[in-house]
Structure formats: C-alpha cells, structure tokens
Amino acid sequence: MKEKNIRNFAIISHIDHGKSTLSDRLMEIMGTVNQRESAPQLLDSLAVEQEHGVTVKARTVQNIYEGSNGEKYQLNLIDTPGHVDFNYEVSKSLAATDGVLLLVDATQGVQAQTVANWRLAHDLGLPMLPVINKVDSPNAKIPEVKQELLDLDASLSQRPFYEVSAKTGQGVAALIEGIVKYLPAPKGDENAPLKALVYDSEFDPYLGVIVQVRIFDGKLNKNSKLELMASNRIFKVKEIGVYQPARLPVKELVAGEVGYLITGIKETADVGVGDTITTVADGIKQALPGFEKQQPLVYAGFFPQDDYQLLKEALQKIALNDSSLAISEENSTAMGPGFRIGFLGIFHLKIIQERLEEEYGLKVTVTSPNVPYKVRLQDSQETKIITNPAHFPSFEKIESIAEPMMTAVIDSPAENLDRVMQLAEQYRGTFQDMDNEGNRVRINYRLPLAEIAYDFYNQLKSISHGYASLQTKPDGYEVSDLVKVEIHINYAKVDALSFITHRSKAAVLTQKLVHELKMTIPRRLYPMPVQAVVEGKVLARIDVPPLRKNAAVNGEQHSISKKQALLRRQNVNKRTAAHSDIELPQAVFNTLLALKD
C-alpha cells in the first residue's frame, strides 16, 4: 500500500461514550468483519472489559477501504485503553497514530476522560476530527455539545463536526470519508534504517511475546535479526503480520504501517511498551523518545480461599499477558501463604481480582492496598523500600519515613475551582501553579500517592459533575510524619490489617475503624476486644459482642449449675483466644478501603 493511502488513527473518548461500538460499525461498513463474525464490542475480548464497559488492553485492526475517488486506502484503527490507570498505554498508542477521532456522547457532553485524552493528543500535536455520538437519542444536546468542544479546543472549528449513531450506523460512512480526507498520511522513509515503536504486547505460551509495532522508517521482513533498544535484547523474527482483527501473516511491513511481530521471547520483562525496535546490522543509534519503565503504584496482598497452587498458576498466566504486574510470594500469620502484587492503580487491582474469579474460578481475599515507602533506620542509616506495612521495623528503630509523591495536573471548569482546591488540600496536596484557558483552569498540585490512590479521582469527578480530568506522574519521595497502625483482635496482632497513615489522621481513623470492624469481624461465644495500636499505645478499642446465650438476663429460670457451667466454658475460651486462628472474611478488608473513601 502506498504511504499516501495509509491512515493511522485512534478513537479517544470518556468511558461509555461509545468508542467500542463505533469501532464495530467502522469494521462492519468497511467489510473487515462479516455479519457472521460480528459481535458487540469485538475489540474488547476480555470479559471484564465488556462488563465494565471500558477497554483494558489496546487492540489494533487493519481496514481496507475503497474511497469515493476509487482509490483503496489502508485505515489502521489503533484502539486505546479507556481508564486513567492505563494512561501510559494510552499515550503510547497515540504516539503510534497520525490523527484521532475525538468522540463525545451527545447526551452527556465533554467529560473528564474526554479532556484527559484530548490533552494527550493535543500535546503530541495530533490533528483531531470531532465526532458527536448517539445523535439518534431523544436526549441528544447537539448544539450544546458542539459548543463544549469548541470551548475545549477552538481549532476544532477548522474541521467539520460529524454527527453519528454508532449503534445504528447513521453518519458512519461519511465519517470514514472524513478520515481519508482530513487525517494526514504517515511520513516515513522505507529506505532508511528500521525504526519501529512497540505500543502494546501480548503473550502466547507457544509463540512467546507478540508485540504490536508502528513502523516509522525502514522495512521489517521475516527472519530479520532485531534489537529491543531499551532492554538490549536481540531476537530473530518468527512471523510478521497485521490484525484484521485476527492475526494475518504478511511478507513485510514498511514505513507508515502498523502490525505485529512474533519475537519468540519468553521473558515478558524484556519487552516494554514504548521501546524502540531496530535491526542489529545497520540499525539506528538513537531510540524514539519517551520510553519509561512502568512501575507499580499500589500493592496489595492476595490470599487464596481454596488452593494456593491454583492461585499461583493463575497469576503466572495473567502476568504473561500483563507485564505491569509485580508479583512476589508472601506469608501472613493471619492469612497464611499468598502473594504481594503491585498494580498501576486501584482499578487495575479490581480487574485482576475479577479475572481470577471469572476466568479461573478462584476466590481470593485481598488486603487493603498500600504504596511503597522508603524507611531510614537509625543505627545503620540504611534505607529500605517497604511495600508491606507488616514488614515495617519497630518504630523506635526508624529515623524517618518517606512517602511517594505525585505531580497532579487537574483540568476543571472555572466554576468548580474552589471545590477542586479544597479537595486537593483535604488530601494533603501542595499547590504549585495555575493557568487559565478560557472557561477552564489547569491546576498543578503535588500530592502524596497514598492519599490519591484510592478514591481521589472518583471524588474529583463527583464534585465537578464529570467535567474535571486528572493526569499524574511520579515526583520522587518526601519525608513525612507517618505512623504504622496495628490491629489487634482478641489481643492477637493481625498483620494483614496493618496500614500506614499520617500521624494527624491516626486518632480519627482508628476510632472510626474499630467501630466498623465491630460489625464485620465474625463473632464468637465470648466478647473479643479490637484494638488499634500506634507506637505501642492503644488509640482506639471496642469489643465485638459475643454469640452467646446469656444465662443471667434471658428472662427464664435456670439452675445455678447450668449458669456456672456456661460461664466456665466461656472462661476457657477466653484463655485460649489469643492462640486460636482468626478467620477474616473479605468484608473486614473492605472496611479498610471504605475508611479511605
């Protein structure tokens, strides 16, 4: 295919604005899939993607389209993930494109993720076609949505607005013509040394790592000897091809095209999104800019409710397709053997938990998520990175604790400025600067990751009615006055319930927590004290009421001997309580999460 007839584009939108449905209509109208192969949300192959209505893993599909001028075009749709946790994958998918469709729901208008993804595309200098979806809905507000888009980006007035219904196909054919007419063709030199961007990857147990690539310069042939420049990994290509949407082998990929290549590499850690591929012989010396190794932001313990070995095998299989997971074995005195897993965010955690349940039939107990801390010891002046609060050294041995910080960029309508700033300060944010952009403001804050990892994004959407967006990036560590909260149940320390918080919040949080735990910890035949301990001092305590028949107040006449026998049994239970196993359901750990909401 001639380079001038290639279009590489993506669709960006807020969650549930119809991106996957529009992808289905585009493939149907261009004949990429027939009626028999067609299925709703065809590019969202994971069950959790269809259930949540959000794309988790990016997909690519090549469409061949005959334009109104009689020429054939290759339209490569590069799908993008749809949640803030996968922001890095979105940026790399967009880096592989030459233009985007900015899709907005006619009934909801511009919302948070619309703005966030628009910002990514705008910063990359990508041309955009505005598309208003669901115009057939009786609740459609087309003029208002057009104005919202123009308020977001005045340059959109230079291109036509496409009004479509992805559900019925109305206006989609005209949109395809608009893609051909208004989005640019790639610019590359197929005679130059090979320069290819890895923008996604997957794992096949038989074929190894399969990478999705955009060829910027040069040609890619089967059996070529290639190098991943970031990891310095050299490999020989087993197969190259394109997605239609299933894999279809081809002889070569040239500058401007996108496709896949089978590497044969079995170690997923060697292949990273954003890496550059070139030939070993006569390859380029300078890699494409912007590559970053994805680091987990939150950690949580996963403990099996049934079989440890089955959980281990399932996690290994999931990790092969998700290189951003960091998995290590863990042993808890309360929960037994399990795993400590690092995630990109809370939504990423929930996706993995649901995949374990739906794809592998495994029930797991998940501890409260936490972030990694840098702990400096007094005697040795040694600094340790600790991802599990249970492994914190004794408080008298700690000189300082540093917590990870994030630079947060919040785009919000001007009328919500006060509420957004109050929210950021509530989460211990430090104001940096602010820019006015028409009727919107862009605010920069420095925030502790531990504060914003749980529900900050949801709170931000709530106070702005979905019109504020959030972009974050790591900004080092900062020493803070943090303490470890230990939870003792029946005088036995439960390490899986330990968590780290700021000293100023400890008293209020612990009082609230013990009262919540009173309602979720399974009762026994005797009262069980629940204590929250900070630096050896009990900050809060409450008793879990017993499951017992109180012989003294039940209103019936009983002999003294029966009453004494009952009390003797309870007394024995109390003496053995601290040595008995305490089984904690998932509801107990959910209490810790609710505490942070």
UniProtKB/TrEMBL annotation:
Residues 4-187 form the Tr-type G domain. The lineage of its organism: Bacteria, Bacillati, Bacillota, Bacilli, Lactobacillales. Its main location: membrane. It is a peripheral membrane protein. This is Elongation factor 4. Signal peptide: none annotated. The keyword Cell membrane applies. The gene is lepA. It comes from Eupransor demetentiae. Its EC number is 3.6.5.n1. InterPro entries: EF-4, EFG_III/V, EFG_V-like, EFTu-like_2, LepA_C_sf, LepA_CTD, LepA_IV, P-loop_NTPase. It is found in: Cell membrane. GTP binds at D16, H17, G18, K19, S20, T21, N133, K134, V135, D136. Belongs to the TRAFAC class translation factor GTPase superfamily. Classic translation factor GTPase family. LepA subfamily. It catalyses: GTP + H2O = GDP + phosphate + H(+). Coiled coil: none annotated.
